[in-house]
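Priority: medium. Attachment 1 of 2:
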């Protein structure tokens, strides 16, 4: 698909706004008439050391009855449930995470996600992984 001029304008405006903390306003200015609405915001304190990182952003669907194996990540991960609900298992306890709720996974945090519901669930996640580190490691 060819990149149109307005795509570039919106992308540049959004990237510039991210640096200044005003992404929504920049998108509105670049695309008059559009009115994005922030639905939820989650902020988590994260400390990282200097160096090169890969930033992963992904969406995962969980059919009813599905689960991830217990695993860890090589860097911090912010997860938001965007549809349905999941059970977060970690540290010997369980917590139900509902649509619109977010949580932080820190390196070495052994956890799993389970969909015990009758409807599909979906997450959006972003990971900041140091270059050379494993993105995900299954824990037996």
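Attachment 2 of 2:
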């Amino acid at each position: 698909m060819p990149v149109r001029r307005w795509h570039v304008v919106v992308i540049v405006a959004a990237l510039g706004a991210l640096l200044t903390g005003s992404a929504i306003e920049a998108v509105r200015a670049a695309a008059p008439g559009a009115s994005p609405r922030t639905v939820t915001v989650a902020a988590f304190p994260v400390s990282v050391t200097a160096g090169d990182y890969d930033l992963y952003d992904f969406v995962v669907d969980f059919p009813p009855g599905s689960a991830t194996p217990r695993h860890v990540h090589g860097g911090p991960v912010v997860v938001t449930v965007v549809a349905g609900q999941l059970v977060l298992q970690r540290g010997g306890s369980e917590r139900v995470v509902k649509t619109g709720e977010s949580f932080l996974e820190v390196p070495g945090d052994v956890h799993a996600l389970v969909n015990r519901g009758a409807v599909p669930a979906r997450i959006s996640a972003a990971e900041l992984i140091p270059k050379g580190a494993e993105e995900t490691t299954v824990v037996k």
